[in-house]
Specification:
Chain lengths: 467, 420
C-alpha cells in the first residue's frame, strides 16, 4: 500500500482522449483493426506512436489516438495480457460467459449477434480513433490510415462512423453533462466533480489513495529504457503508467420504440398529452429533454434557468425519488450522495467517487428523431483505471440492478436489457405510478475492452518483443 | 417465532473419491439442491450450500485431507433440520455423503442422522440479518407485497383524492378479501420471549463483567496490542493476482440471481497470540451480531442475509461463508469503505492477508491486494440453494415494514405509502 501524494501528470505521454473529448473536432470515426502479420504491424504502430495526439496538445484540425485489446497486446508482443499483469477484466476481455451475465449481454444483447467484438466476427486488435474539424478532413485522415494498413500487415475489421457531434444523444437528451473532472485537466473550477487522477490514469494515486493494479515489468524486459519507471521505486518498468482502460460499447437505440412508448403512455382516449409525454421522458431519464435541467432542481416543468445544472445532490431534497425517480437513468448511473453509508454526507459522496466514468462517446446514424431505416445509436466510450470497480460496477450494481436502491424488480427504463419483468416506478404522493411492459430501447451491437496506453508504452508494445 | 441456526456438516472424502465428488457437484450443481436433497420442499431452509475443501498442507507440515461440507441457514434447530433432511431426501443424503469416510454402509434414518450429527461443526460466530424472520414469513411478506402491487395495478381500490391513511385502510381491506392473507393483521414478531430474556441476561452479565474487570482488562488489552504490533512486523502478505483458472471456476457459480454465495478458507497465522486474538475477535463479533446487529445490518452493511465463521482443524483454519446481495466487487468495496477495521480484526489473523498495523489499520484498505486475497482463498460454491433467489435483504426489510404498517395503524401512513 502506498498512501502517497499525487505526482504531476505527464501529459506529454498521455493520449489526448483522457484530457478531452475533442469537442472542437465534430467529425470522428473509429477504425477497428485486425492484425494479420505482427512484424510489419509493429513498424506501423511505432509510426503511429509518433503521430498520436497527446494530452498536452489542443489540436484544431485533426487528432488520432490508438488503443489495443488484450488480443492486440498478444499479437504485437507475443505475450498474454494476463501474464504481463494487466487487470483481469481487460486481460480476459468483454466477451466471456461470466462477463456477459454480469453486463447484461444476454438475449438480444448477446455477443453472438454482435457486429464486431463478438465470437462471430473477425477479432479486433486495435482501435484507431480519428477526429477532425470537418467531414473532408476526417475523410482524408481515414483514407490515409486505412490505406497504410496493408503495408502494416493489418486490415479493417470494422469501420465505425459517427454522426457530426452534437450535445444530444439519439433519444434527444443532452448527454455528458455530469462528468468527473481530473483536477490537472480542469479548465474551469468545478470542484464538486473533481476526482483523483488515478481513477482514470494508471500509475497515479486514486480515490483509495493507492496506485491501482497495472502491468509492471521486470527492468530487464525494457533494455532500451522506453518505459517510465514505477513511481513507487520498485525498479519495475511501468507499462501501465499514463495509460487507461477504454470501454467501448456500440449501443443501438430504437428511437421509434422509445417515442411510441412515450406517446402511448401519455395518451388518453387517442388524445396525446404533449406535456405529459415530455414529463414521462424526463422521469425515465432524470433530466428534461429540452434543456437538460435536472428533475431534482426543476421537478414540475422544464425550468430553463436550471438548464444542464449539475450542482445538486439527491438526498436532501429528494430522498424518496418524488422529483427524480430512484430508477431514473441518471440517478442510477451516478447516484451522487444518495447511497449508503450515510446518504447526504461526504462519506456517501466519497464512495460514489470510486465509481465514476470519464465518458467520451459519440452518436452514429442520422440525426434527429424522424423515422429512419438507418441504425442510430451511441458509440459509448468511457475511460477508467479499474474496469471491475468502475465500469462493470456501474453497469451491474447500479444501472442494471433490478433491486437498485431498495426497489423491487425495476430495471433501468432507458438502457435495461429487459431480462426479467420490466416495470418503471414514478414515486408520487400519495401513490406511485407504475409503468409495466417497457420494450427494450437499447441493444448492444458490439464492444470490447481496450487499453489506451501511454505514448511510450505504445512505443514499447510495438518494439521488437523481448523474450 | 423460530430462531435461525447455522448447520455445518463436514466429512472427510474417502480416498480416491475427491475427483468424483467434485465432478458430481459441478455437473449436478442445481440437481443436487433440487432433486437430490430436495431443499425446496423443506420450508425452514433459507440458504444451503455444498462444497469441497481441497486437501491442504498446513505450515506445520501436516496434511489435511479433502472434505465435503454442507451448510444451511435454517429456522428451528440443528436436530430438526437433520431430521427433515434425512426424512425428505435419504437417497440424496446417501448419494452425497456416501462418498465420505465412515458413512454407514447400510443406513437407516437413525444412522444417517447420527452420522450427520457427529460430523457437525459449531459456528464460532454467526450473523443473521433479521433474527426471527422465518422462511415462511419471508415468503408470506413477499406475497403480500406482490398482492398490494396487484391491487394497485388493477385499480381495485379508489385512490383519487384519498389520503394515505385511507389508501392504507382500503388496501388492507382489499388484501383481506383474498384467500390466505388473514395473517396480515398479526404484526411481524421479532425473536421470541425466551431468546429476548436470554439475550438480556447475557448482555447485562457480559457488560457487568467487563466493567468489573476493566481495571485489569484495559492494560492487558493495550499490552496485547503492543505484542500484536511486534509480531505484525514479521507478517508476510500474499502478492500477485489469483490464478485465472481458479477465478473462472469460482465465478461459474456467481451472479446467477440477486444473491451470491461467498465461501472462503484460510490458515490462521502461527502462535498463541494470533490464536487468542482471533478467538476473542470472533467471540466479540458473535456477541455483536447477537446484541447489536440482529435487526437490519452488520456494522452498517445491509447486503448480507447470513454469515458464519467456523474454526476447524484444531483452530488452525477458518471457513467464512456468507450469502449476500449483489456482485463480489460491490461486496468487497462495501467492506473496504465501511468496516475495514472489523475485517482486519478477524481476517488480519489469516496467513497471507494484506499487512495490518495495530490490528485494525491497513489490511483490507489495500484495495487490490485485499480483493486478490479474497478471490485466492475463495472456494467454488458448486451447490448453492436460496429459498428466495431474486430478492435482497433490503427488499425483505421493505416487505416487513409494509406488513407491519398494514397490521397496525401506528406507522405513519405517509411513509408507508411511499414503500409501495
Amino acid at each position: 500500500m502506498s498512501p502517497v501524494t499525487n505526482d504531476q501528470l505527464e501529459s506529454a505521454d498521455i493520449q489526448g482522449l483522457l484530457a478531452r473529448g475533442f469537442g472542437n473536432l465534430p467529425w470522428a470515426s473509429y477504425v477497428m483493426v485486425h492484425i494479420a502479420e505482427p512484424s510489419p504491424a509493429r513498424s506501423l504502430v511505432r509510426e503511429w506512436a509518433n503521430r498520436v495526439t497527446p494530452a498536452n496538445a489542443s489540436p484544431l484540425d485533426t487528432a488520432m489516438n490508438v488503443a489495443l485489446t488484450a488480443q492486440g497486446v498478444r499479437a504485437l508482443t507475443t505475450k498474454s495480457a494476463v501474464d504481463l499483469g494487466f487487470s483481469e477484466p481487460y486481460a480476459t476481455g468483454m466477451v466471456t460467459e461470466y462477463r456477459s451475465r454480469l453486463l447484461g449481454d444476454v438475449g438480444k444483447n448477446a455477443p453472438a449477434g454482435w457486429e464486431w467484438g463478438g465470437p462471430n466476427s473477425e477479432p479486433v486488435h486495435l482501435a484507431v480513433l480519428l477526429y477532425a474539424a470537418s467531414e473532408a478532413r476526417l475523410s482524408e485522415l481515414q483514407k490515409s490510415v486505412i490505406g497504410s494498413l496493408a503495408t502494416g500487415g493489418m486490415r479493417v475489421a470494422k469501420l465505425l462512423g459517427t454522426a457530426e457531434l452534437t450535445d444530444r444523444e439519439p433519444f434527444g437528451f443532452h448527454d455528458g453533462i455530469s462528468q468527473p473532472v481530473i483536477a490537472e485537466f480542469a479548465s474551469t473550477s468545478r470542484e464538486g466533480d473533481v476526482v483523483k487522477s488515478g481513477e482514470f490514469v494508471l500509475g497515479y494515486v486514486n480515490e483509495y489513495s493507492q496506485r491501482t493494479e497495472r502491468p509492471l515489468l521486470a527492468a530487464d524486459s525494457d533494455p532500451q529504457r522506453i518505459l517510465p519507471h514505477d513511481p513507487d521505486g520498485s525498479g519495475a518498468a511501468d507499462l501501465g503508467r499514463n495509460g487507461s482502460y477504454l470501454v467501448f460499447r456500440q449501443l443501438r437505440q430504437d428511437i421509434a420504440a422509445f417515442e411510441d412508448f412515450l406517446t402511448r403512455s401519455a395518451s388518453v382516449d387517442g388524445h396525446i398529452d404533449a406535456a405529459a409525454k415530455e414529463r414521462l421522458a424526463a422521469k425515465l431519464v432524470g433530466r428534461w429533454r429540452e434543456s437538460g435541467a435536472p428533475l431534482t432542481l426543476s421537478p414540475d416543468y422544464d425550468d430553463l434557468s436550471y438548464a444542464k445544472a449539475n450542482r445538486f445532490g439527491y438526498h436532501e431534497q429528494d430522498p424518496d425519488g418524488l422529483r427524480c425517480p430512484l430508477g431514473a437513468h441518471v440517478r442510477r448511473a451516478n447516484p451522487r450522495d444518495s447511497l449508503p453509508p450515510n446518504p447526504g454526507t461526504e462519506e456517501s459522496r466519497q464512495v460514489n467517487r470510486r465509481h465514476r466514468l470519464l465518458r467520451r462517446g459519440r452518436n452514429y446514424g442520422p440525426g434527429g428523431t424522424e423515422p429512419s431505416d438507418a441504425p442510430r445509436g451511441l458509440h459509448f466510450l468511457c475511460l477508467n483505471a479499474n474496469i471491475a470497480r468502475q465500469y462493470e460496477f456501474v453497469q451491474h450494481s447500479w444501472v442494471n440492478d433490478p433491486n437498485f436502491a431498495g426497489m423491487v424488480g425495476v430495471e433501468d427504463p432507458l438502457t435495461g436489457p429487459r431480462a426479467g419483468t420490466t416495470s418503471f416506478v414514478e414515486p408520487a404522493v400519495p401513490l406511485r405510478r407504475r409503468h409495466t411492459g417497457l420494450p427494450q430501447f437499447v441493444q448492444v451491437r458490439g464492444g470490447a475492452y481496450f487499453f489506451l496506453p501511454g505514448i511510450r508504452a505504445l512505443r514499447y508494445l510495438s518494439s521488437t518483443p523481448v523474450i | 417465532m423460530a430462531e435461525q441456526v447455522a448447520v455445518t456438516v463436514r466429512a472427510q472424502i474417502a480416498d480416491g473419491r475427491v475427483g468424483a465428488v467434485t465432478r458430481l457437484l459441478s455437473n449436478r450443481s442445481a440437481g443436487i439442491a433440487n432433486e437430490d436433497l430436495r431443499l425446496a420442499q423443506l420450508p425452514r431452509v433459507h440458504f444451503a450450500r455444498v462444497f469441497v475443501v481441497e486437501s491442504a498442507t498446513l505450515r506445520s507440515g501436516e496434511t489435511i485431507p479433502a472434505s465435503l461440507v454442507y451448510m444451511a441457514d435454517v429456522d428451528g434447530s440443528l436436530a430438526r433440520h437433520l431430521r427433515d433432511l434425512v426424512e425428505n431426501a435419504a437417497p440424496g443424503v446417501d448419494k452425497l455423503f456416501g462418498l465420505c469416510v465412515g458413512y454407514p454402509a447400510q443406513p437407516d434414518d437413525a444412522r444417517r442422522i447420527a452420522w450427520l450429527r457427529s460430523h457437525t461443526l459449531p459456528a464460532t460466530a454467526y450473523y443473521v440479518h433479521c433474527v426471527g424472520r422465518s422462511v415462511e414469513r419471508v415468503s408470506n411478506e413477499t406475497r403480500l407485497y406482490g398482492c398490494v402491487q396487484d391491487i394497485l395495478d388493477r385499480g381495485e381500490i379508489a385512490t383519487n383524492g384519498a389520503t394515505p391513511a385511507q389508501i392504507r385502510t382500503r388496501i388492507r381491506d382489499a388484501v383481506l378479501r383474498r384467500a390466505d392473507f388473514s395473517w396480515i393483521t398479526d404484526p411481524p414478531h421479532g425473536p421470541g420471549l425466551c431468546r429476548r430474556v436470554r439475550d438480556c441476561v447475557q448482555l447485562v452479565g457480559v457488560v457487568a463483567l467487563l466493567l468489573i474487570a476493566a481495571p485489569v482488562l484495559v492494560p492487558v488489552a493495550l499490552l496485547w496490542l503492543v505484542l500484536v504490533r511486534v509480531i505484525e512486523q514479521r507478517d508476510s502478505q500474499e502478492e500477485g493476482s489469483p490464478d485465472q483458472n481458479h477465478v473462472d471456476d469460482v465465478r461459474r457459480y456467481e451472479d446467477l440471481g440477486a444473491q451470491n454465495p461467498f465461501t472462503g478458507v484460510g490458515e490462521i497465522k502461527p502462535g498463541l497470540i494470533r490464536l487468542v486474538t482471533i478467538r476473542v475477535a470472533l467471540a466479540g463479533l458473535n456477541f455483536a451480531c447477537r446484541h447489536l446487529y440482529s435487526r437490519d445490518n452488520l456494522a452498517g452493511i445491509d447486503t448480507i442475509h447470513f454469515a458464519r465463521w467456523v474454526l476447524l482443524d484444531g483452530n488452525r483454519r477458518l471457513i467464512f461463508a456468507s450469502s449476500y446481495d449483489g456482485s463480489l466487487e460491490s461486496y468487497m468495496d462495501d467492506f473496504i469503505s465501511q468496516v475495514a477495521w472489523g475485517i482486519n480484526l478477524v481476517f488480519g489473523n489469516g496467513a497471507g492477508f494484506p499487512r495490518t498495523r495495530w490490528l485494525i489499520l491497513g489490511g483490507a484498505r489495500d484495495e487490490i491486494r485485499y480483493k486478490h486475497y479474497l478471490r485466492r482463498h475463495q472456494i467454488p460454491t458448486r451447490v448453492f440453494y436460496s429459498a428466495y433467489p431474486h430478492r435482497t435483504v433490503v427488499n425483505h426489510d421493505k416487505f416487513t415494514t409494509v406488513h407491519a404498517g398494514i397490521a397496525s395503524d401506528t406507522a405513519d401512513p405517509d411513509e408507508w405509502t411511499k414503500l409501495l
